[in-house]
Amino acid sequence: MAERTEPADWVRCAGCGALVYGKRWTRTLHVCPDCGHHGRLTAPERLEQLLDPGTAESIGPVPALHDPLGFVDSRPYAERLERARADTGLPEAVLCAAGTVEGQPCVAAVMDFRFLGGSLGCAVGALITHAARTSLERRVPLVLVTASGGARMQEGVLSLMQMAKTAQAMAELDEAGVLTVSIVTDPTYGGVAASFATLADVILAEPGARMGFAGPRVIEQTTGEKLPEGFQTAEFLLAHGMVDDVVPRVGLRPVLGRLLGLRAVTGPLPPGDGAAILRAADDLVGRDPWHSVRLARHPERPTTLDYVRRLVDDFQELHGDRLAEDCPAIVAGTGRLAGTPVVLIGHHKGGPDLGERRRRNFGMAQPSGYRKAARLMRLAAKLGLPVVTLIDTPGANPGPEAETGGQAAAIAENLRLMARLPVPIVAVLIGEGGSGGALALAVADRVLVCANGTYSVISPEGCAAILWKDPQAAPAAAASLRLHPGDLLSLGVVDGIVPEPPAGAHQDHAAAADLLEAAVTAALHELIPWDPDRLRADRRARFHRYGTDTGAAAADWSQP
Ligand SMILES: [Zn+2]
Hints:
Largest sheet: 8 strands, mixed
EC number: 2.1.3.15
Organism: Kitasatospora cineracea
Number of strands: 18
CATH architecture of the largest domain: Alpha-Beta Complex
Subcellular location: Cytoplasm
Radius of gyration: 26 Å
Strand content: 15-25%
Helix content: 25-40%
Shape: elongated
Bound molecules: zinc ion
Number of domains: 2
InterPro entries: Acetyl_CoA_COase_a_su (IPR001095), Acetyl_CoA_COase_Trfase_b_su (IPR000438), ClpP/crotonase-like_dom_sf (IPR029045), COA_CT_C (IPR011763), COA_CT_N (IPR011762), Znf-ACC (IPR041010)
Function: Component of the acetyl coenzyme A carboxylase (ACC) complex. Biotin carboxylase (BC) catalyzes the carboxylation of biotin on its carrier protein (BCCP) and then the CO(2) group is transferred by the transcarboxylase to acetyl-CoA to form malonyl-CoA.
Number of helices: 22
């Protein structure tokens, strides 16, 4: 095994070989203080680290020795099982308990790699399913900690069936709206990776933990090619959109506590500040539209992450589309906005630093960004959480990668998904609302625009180049496109305007954030008591009206 207790109370780190004093090793949760290597934990150690002290309640029947095939290799399987039991003191490769994490109740199923490599046999499948059913009965989240080499060969094809069985158990929790979280530890391979480990709503991975279906040795032997450094590690998986976050062991309890505490608020709620949303554009009358365009693009204008830092408590950013990558131009996660648990999704331009703006692709999403947003919206629907979107993008992505990645379909999918979403959606155009890239986050029950925001089918420069044949005509195009908040309000495309500090949001981020918070809270408090049918009917009617009776489409605020 990786770590071994030395004759005295010393432990040798499997990462760097350093000797760490035993008590310190315990204090650092078996993470090397020198190199950060995360040592393997037994299931009882993991439960002790994860759950609040004294809260673990053992659940799940002790499985009988199960040898369905009467399997024998160099030794009978039954003998190997008994040996594993004696060596580990565990009845099987997974240990289940109910308890709390940071005071939040959950059911935990924790795998132990020492027990026949954490292999997925019939008893493991039964115990995972039992944990999921307990979680379902008690309506508390399920936390899975995985460590496995894959299926248990000695149980033949019945072992394979455990993948389907546990996937079914996860589906039942999806249908019931119960949160599932998996914590991927090193190593997680084969049947476990291709079932419950990756079916969780949120997938966290410990630094350096490897996960995949086929192991690296199998891949190298099959292809004859050397795999790149870091292949299948947590960091690789994060970059490729497969996990939500890489969380060092010491951070797992706080992150879990945040996630497990997400609960839908149900109405009725106190009405928000009615004056927080302007329903008339008197202050903006006569404003030069080009002025709005310039302010909407101001590099010091607050970004989505600026607002998140100021307004969202316990924000947990979630990454990845679970397909290929994590788009840095769209930020998404869970948290509490003015006390209300929400899923927040927004374009992120990156702020004043040019390097960061480049890294964020100036807020122009890849298809994976829209897919990440869609994944988080489905999570919101499952958990009954409202969605708040902050829109700030020059437009869809003009690069070839976005096209090969299926940009058009990714945008289209979001439009359809949002039309059906059973939870409230509040969208705010905090800066530029450019074309389909903006609309992909804006099919909402309430659409607001900041006083210096814009919303347009194309950039004024693009429009000027095509129709005026002269990019210099951009200010004229901006006027003709009617992209300015006052015009958007009169067209009924937005329901209201979020006021900004007198000199613009870029001059006073704190004041801008307060104004945004008041407006979003007012909209959320109005919508949260609505049932899903009313939300969807109203949302569909809203978008159906556009173009048929322009000017009358804005929300009817007089209705309770
Ligand atoms: Zn080390």
